[in-house]
Amino acid sequence: MATAPKAANKNLKAVPAADASAAQPANSMKMILIVVGAILLTLAAAGGAWFFLGANQNNAPGSPSTAPRAVDNKPPVFMTMETFTVNLQTEDMAQFLQIGMTMQVADQATADLIKLNMPQVRNRLLLLLSSKKASEILTIDGKKKLAADIIEQAKQPFSPQGAKPEVTDVFFTSFVVQ
Question: Where in the cell is it found (predicted)?
């Protein structure tokens, strides 16, 4: 009789061993699914980053995403201009424009070039501003067009064979029409 319980115990031990070996493939299958899921999640994140940060490098020439990105990597260089006060072209009565602005330029070398030629820059801008009517510059669209005109004037070379200064934007810091 003593042998019968041992045989029963051997059978009991053999059954849990079979269950343990059956549980191991289930656990390893879960681990494989977790690893595969992590890899897919990483690939999806990398693909999203590639799409949003650099996928548009192959756009048509001249599109904003293919423009040189030298300015993007450097901090912006701003030049605060002295306030301009000019007589506007008369419509019904005499009106004045007092305007403060800051120019954004490509780099410090461009800022130095503009500072060196500030009398020419101020003359160009005074002539431009005094050629405007109040009705032309009071609307948002009028201000945007004025900013574009200012950029165009500031980009003109200072000598016949001189380089064009790279002015990228103009920001109005004050704008008063009286």
Answer: Cell inner membrane; Cell membrane
